[in-house]
Amino acid sequence: MNKKTETTVPPMYMNEALDVFEEWSSLRGMSHETMRGYYVDSQQFARWIGEKSNAPVLIPAITVQHIEEFMRYLVKERKCMPRSVNRKLNTLAMFFQCMKKKNIIAENPLDEIERMKVPDTERTYLNRDEVEAIIDAINHPVLHYFALTMAYSGIRVNECIHLKLIDVNLDESYIQVINGKGGKNRRVPLSSHLAEQLTIYLQKHRPETNSLYFFATKRSGTVSTQYVNRILLEAYQKANIDKHVTSHILRHSFASYLVSKDTHVAVIQKLLGHASLKTTSIYLHVHQDDMKEAIERIDF
After folding, report:
1. Is 156 among the catalytic positions?
2. Which CATH number fits the domain that encloses residue 157?
3. pLDDT tens track of the chain, all 300 residues?
4. Is 274 a catalytic residue?
5. Are residues 281 and 203 in the same domain?
6. Is 208 exposed, middle or buried (0-12, 13-18, 19+ CB in 10 A)?
7. Is 252 designated active site?
8. pTM score, two decimals?
9. Is 162 found in the same domain as 93?
10. Is 205 noted as a catalytic residue in this protein?
């Protein structure tokens, strides 16, 4: 009878493991934004456990109890919401999965951790008049057309930032999103109105620059998420809209408007680039009038 050979787990400290995890993640074809999120979350855990231990931490010494304490730290001290806590836990699950595949540990401690329950709440969105008021309130020409593109196409802010001139085909009226969330590409059709507006942007408002990015300022050759959010904040205050407005709300409002026009949810899923209909379902808003109308249809 053959005896099962035991594999000696090589010792590795947390700082070394972070480098291994970064390299391992990069080989999985993840997008820049996903990689950045993993880096930020794993670094936060590394700092926390390092300060708690007051000494270098060996990966095999990290237990389920450490993860549970980290969760309490996030909730009580950092005031993180359940969705944010779960995102960080998912990052750590990937981190320890990497450690397991590298034979640094025998078991993934995150396998024993239940995720926090996320309240089933609908997201804030803007109606048509509010979207138009915000866009009209943006005086910066590049950001005006940037916001217009997000509102009329539903693409993510980072997808819009990384659009290059060759990705926008105004002759055939579509945007080619390259390396979107999850590293996926997709083609998003342009409405005739948006295609017309983007033509005006290129002819009259895009500054002279050598930048390959479609939305480019003369100074930097691109735009940033922080800059977009700052301009939107100023615009919604100027438009007297009493809602929490970020760049994502334009994408959300795009989806919500399509729902109100009875667009099939599978079409909305494809336009937004969601892998699952479950993700798209958060954009479905059910109003009291809709429920009343549905009830009135019952005629047994």
Report:
1. yes
2. 1.10.443.10
3. 444 444 455 679 999 999 999 999 888 877 777 788 899 999 999 999 999 998 899 999 999 999 999 999 999 999 998 889 999 999 999 999 999 999 999 999 999 899 988 775 556 788 889 999 999 999 999 999 999 999 999 999 999 999 999 999 999 999 999 887 777 889 999 999 999 999 999 999 999 999 999 999 998 999 998 899 899 889 988 988 887 777 788 888 898 888 888 888 888 888 888 888 777 777 666 555 566 666 666 666
4. yes
5. yes
6. exposed
7. no
8. 0.65
9. no
10. no
